[in-house]
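Each letter names a residue; the fold follows as C-alpha cells. Both lines appear below:
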Amino acid sequence: MRTRALLPLAVAAAVALVPSTDASASTKRCNQTHGPELAHSTVVKVYKVRTGSSYRFYGCAKPRGPVVALTQPFKAGAVKLVAAKGAYVAFTRTISAQDTIAVVDARTGRKRHGLYPPYDIEFDVDPVTPQIGAARINNLGELAVAYVGLGSGNSTDSTVYVYAFDAHGNQQLLDSGPSSKLRPSSLRMSGETIAWTHSGAKRTASIGEFSLAVITGGGALEGDVTTSPEGGIACHVTRTGVVGNCIGSFSPNTPVTVTATGAPNATVTISGACSAVHAPVAGQATSVATCVTTMSRAQTAKVTFG
C-alpha cells in the first residue's frame, strides 16, 4: 500500500463536473423543488432535471437553502451518482477512456475531490466495461473506491483494487485480489472505517492507516498470532483457516512485531509481511517465531504451524 497526494482532474474533467452559475436555479429554495430525491439525507436534497435532450444534477441544503447546480449538463447516463452521505455526493464520468470520480458538496456545489483512477491500474480496453465497481462516501467527503482492472495470467477474473481517499488529498491502496474472492459489492464505509470481504473473510481498515492481515499457511498444527503495538490482531490459526481478529490497522511507517506462538513440538513459520522460522527446542514450553515489518503498505502475514 502506498500513500500519495491526489492528482487533480484535467481541465476536461473540471469542465464536465464542476457546475457553472445557473441563474434560474439560484432563485429557487430547497422547499420549492420538485422531483424524487436521489440522495436520502436529512442534510441535503439531490435531484436530476431533464431539459430537452440533456440532464443536470442539482442540490440544496434542507429545508430552505438555495438550489445549486452540481454538474454541467450531460447526455443520457454520461454522469452517474454513485454515492451519497450527509452533505456530500459522488459522481462518475468517463473522460479520455478513464472513469473519473468527483465528490461535491451538495449544499454549495463546490467540488471536494476530483480523481482519475490510480495510475498503475491496467483496465480493460473495452469502453463499456466499468472501471469503478463500487464507491462509498462518509460525512467528511472521504471516499472508498473499488476499481476493477484486468486479471493476471490466464485467469478469467478481473483484479479488484480497494482504495481510500482521505480529506487531505491522500490515497491508500488497502487491498487487491481476484474478483472471485474480492467482490466490489462487499465494500462498506462507516465513518473512517472501511470494510470489505476477501476470500470469505471480513477485512477492515481505517482511513489514514494501513492494514495487516493474518492468513493460514495450512500446517498440520495450530497456534496464536498477536502484534505489537496492538492493532486489533488476536488471531488463532488452524490448518484450514483463521479465527478471531485476524486483520488490524496501523499508522503509516509504524514498526509492527508479529508474534506467532505454537505448541512446543511445532515448527513455526512466518512469511509475507516479514519472515521468521522457529524450530522446536527441547525444554521450551512453546515454539515462538517473531519478525518485524514496517507498515508502508497493506500487507499479509502467512503463518504456518507445522
